[in-house]
Amino acid sequence: MNSALSLPFLVICLVLVQQCDSVGFAPELYCGLENCYDVIEINREEFDKQKLSKAYRALARKHHPDRVKNKEEKILAEERFRVIATAYETLKDEEAKTTYDYYLDHPDQRFYNYYQYYRLRVAPKVDVRLVIVGTILVISLFQYLSAKHKFSEAIEYATGVGKFRNMAIKDGVDRGLLEMDRNGKLKKNKGDNDAIIKQIITENLDVTGGYKKESVYDTLAWHTIISPLTIFRYIKWAVLWYWRFAIKKEELDDEAKMYLIRKYLGVSQSEFDQRFGTDIDDLFEHECWIKANCEKWKAEKDAAEQEKMAQSGRYKRYKRYMKNAGTISFVDEE
Fold first, then answer.
1. Whole-angstrom Cα distance, residue 302 to residue 3?
2. J domain spans which residues (predicted)?
3. Among 5-9, 160-164, 199-203, where is mean pLDDT lowest?
């Protein structure tokens, strides 16, 4: 009785085992109901990319549809060739292979496996490095064009300022580009006097701050290129600073004092030159390389400036311009 029941039971178990082997395989994913490793005839545990290419070429030659003449057999060969090609494309790409291995190891996570499969198929394959380079170039181009536009605004402003215009006219007369009549007025010539004056101002104008002349050396692209050198210089400087002033206990020199002053003021070199360039002697007199002294000096400076701004709206606009735009002057201006 038990022997008679055991045979059907064993058959049922074998069927269930066979079904369990294919759990998670979907006809529309990867190699369908077949294992891509089996299709390409490579053991998963002994996977090697060189073996993969060799196995694919051998199978492609063997199952190529052009080798078959019969129409029905040709259809079967085309289908087999497609499965082989799919297996090769899946296993040769590192990301696709990782996703497929997860698909094999976690057949119960059907929705996630569908998502990963279609994500790889639909999402465009773009090299991240190209995206980063492209982004840096776009930002750099914007920086350059923006700086060019701001410098043009500074030139237009300077052209309308009497002091700069008169200096440009004098320089133009000295160079023979402009002529004056007996009454001290500009003579009309073949060229455009205003254009000549503007060109002279452009050549001689020294603009600092946010409206200075455009340069590739101020773009993100250039700073990215030289970043290794910048990092190396900073590390070298930091090590030297620690060696001189922390270990050897050397006395601070003027350059070190200036660094600490800028640090405690919270400004860069260019901003320091614009806002505090005329206060260097005062800063040294008050020993502002000491943090407490610097904070006290800055508080007194800010209080004095606030009082001036309260008394003069024009002075307030001037300080705002100095902070954002810097200075405008002729190169040879005393």
1. 102
2. 35-104
3. 5-9
Alpha-carbon span 125 to 174, nearest angstrom? 63
Compute the distance between CA of residue 266 and CA of residue 249 in angstroms, rounded to an integer: 25
Domain 21-122: homologous superfamily in CATH: DnaJ domain (1.10.287.110)
Amino acid identity at 313: G
pLDDT, average across residues 11-29: 54
Distance CA 48, CA 91 (A): 10
Q: What is the pLDDT of residues 41-93, one digit of tens each?
A: 988 888 888 888 899 999 988 888 888 888 888 888 889 999 999 999 999 88
Tokens standing for 220? Answer: 């993100």
pLDDT score recorded for residue 313: 57
* Residue 35, helix vs strand vs coil: coil
Instruction: Count CA within 13 A, CB hemisphere, residue 206.
Output: 7
* Cα torsion through 272, 274, 219, 207, rounded to 10: -160
Number of DSSP helices (H) and strands (E) in the chain, helices first: 16, 2
Residue 19 in this model has a pLDDT that exceeds 50: no
329 phi and psi angles, rounded to 5 deg: -160, 160
CA distance 96 to 89: 8
Interval 166-182 mean pLDDT: 81
The domain segmentation of the chain, as residue ranges, is: 21-122, 129-217, 251-321
**Strand 328-330 and strand 205-207: pairing?**
antiparallel
Q: Work out the burial of residue 139: count CB atoms within 10 Å of its CB; fewer than 13 is exposed, 13-18 middle, 19 or more buried.
A: middle
Mean pLDDT of the chain: 82
